[in-house]
Amino acid sequence: MAVGRIIETPECVEEGAEWLATACPRMAYAMQKTGPLPLRRRPDGFSQLLSAIVSQQVSVASANAIWKRLKDAKLTGPRKIMWSTDDDLRAVGLSRQKIRYARALAEARIDYTALRDASDEEVVAVLTEVPGIGVWTAEIYAMFSLGRADVIAPGDLALQEAARILYDLPKRPTDKELRLMAEAWSPWRSVAARVLWAYYRVAKEREGIR
Q1: What CATH code is carried by the domain that includes residue 188?
Q2: What sign does the dihedral 88-92-95-98 (CA atoms) show?
Q3: Which residues have CB under 8 Å from 192's CB, separation 6+?
Q4: Less packed terminus of the chain by CB within 10 Å, N or C?
Q5: Total number of domains constituting the chain
Q6: pTM, whole model, 2 decimals?
Q7: Are residues 37 and 191 in contact, defined by beta-carbon separation less than 8 angstroms?
Q8: From the DSSP assignment, how many helices (H) and strands (E) are in the chain?
């Protein structure tokens, strides 16, 4: 099954940005404020999803510290997670719930190579079968680990708030409303998300919010 365009290089992001600027004056305005957009490609596989689980509901600093302890203890692979004891995982900073999620991910035996050729919908369906992985995490994985050019994560609060400011909406759009808005940005919804995240930082700095 064709998976559509894959974002591999900064030039791919630039191509998408040019398309969006032509298609939407507000996107063009946002990019004038943000400057060049980041590539943000990441590796795919188990460790990326484990890292996403580690990052849930903790600060960036805490997530980074826990992840470093996991790496130092060589506990970032599925077999190591399955072979470790709960005490081992608690010692590096995982909560009881995150231990359960990490084990569920390890036991899911996802074929990460096959996901590279799966449709966006299949990727989300496969990943969200795992406890602890929601639609937002699955869509972020599709965008940045698989490089999908036409995926957005409309449940992301920063994207919703950036869309509210950029398009002068009376309130922050819901997940469903932003997903509908994003249809106008296809086939470059992933680049549109990069625009909105970058614009969010610019807009919030302008409003004096840190």
Answers
A1: 1.10.1670.40
A2: negative
A3: 16, 20, 27, 152, 182, 185
A4: C
A5: 2
A6: 0.92
A7: yes
A8: 13, 0
Where in 53-191 does DSSP place strands (E)? Answer: none
% of the chain beyond a pLDDT of 70: 97
Last residue of a domain, one of 145, 167, 185: 145
Same domain (yes/no): 24, 68: no
The identity of residue 181, as a single letter, is: M
CATH number at residue 113: 1.10.340.30
List the single range of 56-60, 148-152, 173-177 with lowest mean pLDDT. 56-60
Distance CA 133, CA 126 (A): 10
The CA distance from 158 to 193, in Å, is 10
**CA–CA dist 112, 138 (Å, integer):** 13
pLDDT digits (tens, 9 = 90+) for 36-70: 999 999 999 999 999 999 999 889 899 999 999 99
Residue 124 lies in a domain: yes
